[in-house]
Design goal:
Growth Hormone, Chain: A; 3 domains; transport; EmrB-like
Length: about 475
């Protein structure tokens, strides 16, 4: 017999110790997220200094993103093995050291190799930080705490182009890497003091066969989608072949994991319809966020002929709207639960993207207003989805859930960026306005898909046998 969602309890007080814990994790997540977009704006400068081809220089960014995908599947096992907080500090220390080495790289080849290792360490930071918070904070306050982490995760990529453009205007590109060193050192010192440095539990050996499947399949899917966006056509060697092998690898991993007693990632979590709906929302929300981060800089540069710095400044309302709404989304989640709040945020995003698509020749002020609204919708939807998903899974499966969610966000982001770039590239033959008008309608469709995921999550929570409210024991993550 099903029961509807119970009335949520009053939000619990958050102690200073919990805020310090969230602040430490947010600082490390900010450093890792900043590097995702900060370097993209410097690729042309790096190419000129090292006298490299554009294809070679592109691997400074692509190598980092592919390495992120490689490390995500193993972080759940590593977190259980050595302890989530210890893994976080080791990954942060390695990221900081490698950032310094990137800033001192003598040639393009060494920079690419260092960026791969940097991506491997950065891929561990966000899911491990989410695991630490999910296990330490408890129900009734997780929304507000996760919102602080969400500010760092979402604001860093949004600020990357602006900060990178301003730094390149007066500093060497090497400072785009060296800026991570003081951030990392401060986060490590604070982490050693405030993080719960419990040792990991003994666990089964890693599922190397499963890791081989997903460790090959996931980066190939990301690479194929990224290449599709760069080339604008489904080239066989760089798009279709990697995609085919990557999808086969992921399918083999799922088949292997469902038959193994102790898989690398627990696929049994997908038996819960609420968790499936949350993951669907996350994947399309990732496609919308990453795709918009690529679409609108092109919009300003091709339609308004803005330069790099001006484009970065034009993008600020998007990140600002997200940063403003994340804390409100967290408070509403702790008070009303995640389902309705996530649906409200996704609904706002859908309305804004629809207004974008319906607008003909929008003025600069109106575009800024819509970007701000898009950021608000994204900020209002992200944290509630995360909290609701964490409430569904048992406490000891949180490492699996954080890894799976971040993997789906990465796949969705690669798909969204590729899709929007291909639509714009193909539409330019009929004029820039036609190209972006078409892309904005696809953006609206992506927002609708994310909305359907959040509505499915809300419906699943309302009809669950265990009402997932902040006061309910199951929402604390107990097995």
């Amino acid at each position: 017999m099903t029961r509807v969602e119970a009335e949520p309890a009053a939000p619990q007080e958050i102690t200073p110790a919990i805020w310090r814990l969230a602040g430490v994790i947010a600082l490390g997540a900010f450093a890792g997220g900043l590097d995702t977009s900060l370097i993209n704006i410097a690729l042309e400068t790096i190419q000129r200094e090292f006298h490299a081809g554009i294809g070679t220089a592109q691997w400074v960014a692509s190598g980092y993103l592919l390495a992120l995908a490689v490390s995500l599947p193993i972080c759940a096992w590593l977190g259980r093995r050595v302890g989530a907080a210890r893994l976080y500090l080791w990954a942060l220390a390695a990221f900081t050291v490698i950032s310094a080495l990137c800033g001192l790289a003598p040639n393009i080849e060494s920079l690419i190799v260092l960026r791969v290792f940097q991506g491997l360490t950065a891929g561990l930071l966000v899911p491990t930080g989410q695991t630490i918070l999910g296990q330490a904070v408890g129900p009734g306050r997780l929304g507000r705490v996760m919102a602080r982490l969400g500010i760092a995760v979402t604001l860093a990529p949004a600020l990357g182009p602006t900060l990178g453009g301003l730094m390149l205007h007066s500093l060497s590109w090497r400072w785009l890497f060296l800026i991570n060193v003081p951030l990392g050192v401060i986060a490590i010192l604070l982490g050693r003091r405030y993080l719960p440095l419990a040792k990991g539990a003994s666990t089964t050996p890693p599922d190397w066969i499963g890791y081989g499947y997903i460790g090959l399949g996931l980066p190939l899917v990301v690479y194929g989608l990224t290449s599709w966006g760069e080339l604008g056509s489904p080239d066989g060697a760089r798009v279709l072949l990697p995609l085919a092998i990557g999808v086969a690898g992921l399918a083999a991993f799922v088949r292997h994991a469902t038959r193994r007693a102790h898989p690398l990632l627990d696929m049994r979590l997908f038996r819960d319809p609420g968790y499936v709906a949350a993951c669907t929302g996350f994947m399309f929300n990732g496609a919308l966020s990453f795709g918009s981060a690529l679409l609108f800089p092109l919009y300003f540069q091709l339609l308004h002929s803005d330069g790099v710095v001006a484009t970065g400044l034009q993008m600020l309302p998007l990140g600002l709207g997200t940063a403003i709404m994340l804390p409100l989304g967290g408070r509403l989640t702790d008070k009303y639960t995640g389902g309705p709040v996530a649906a409200l945020g996704a609904g706002l995003t859908t309305l804004v993207t629809g207004a974008f698509a319906l607008s003909d020749h929008p003025g600069v002020v109106f575009v800024q207003f819509l970007l701000f609204g898009l950021g608000m919708g994204t900020g209002l939807a992200t944290t509630p989805m995360m909290v609701a998903a964490f409430g569904i899974v048992p406490r000891d499966r949180l490492p699996d859930a954080t890894a799976q969610i971040n993997i789906l966000v990465r796949i969705g982001g690669a798909l969204g960026a590729a899709l929007f770039s291909v639509i714009v590239a193909r539409g330019l033959s009929e004029g820039a306005e036609h190209a972006f008008h078409t892309a904005l309608w696809w953006q609206f469709g992506t927002a609708v898909a994310a909305l359907l995921g959040t509505l499915g999550l809300w419906a699943a929570l309302r009809t669950s046998d265990a009402p997932l409210t902040p006061a309910h024991p199951h929402s604390a993550g107990k097995a």
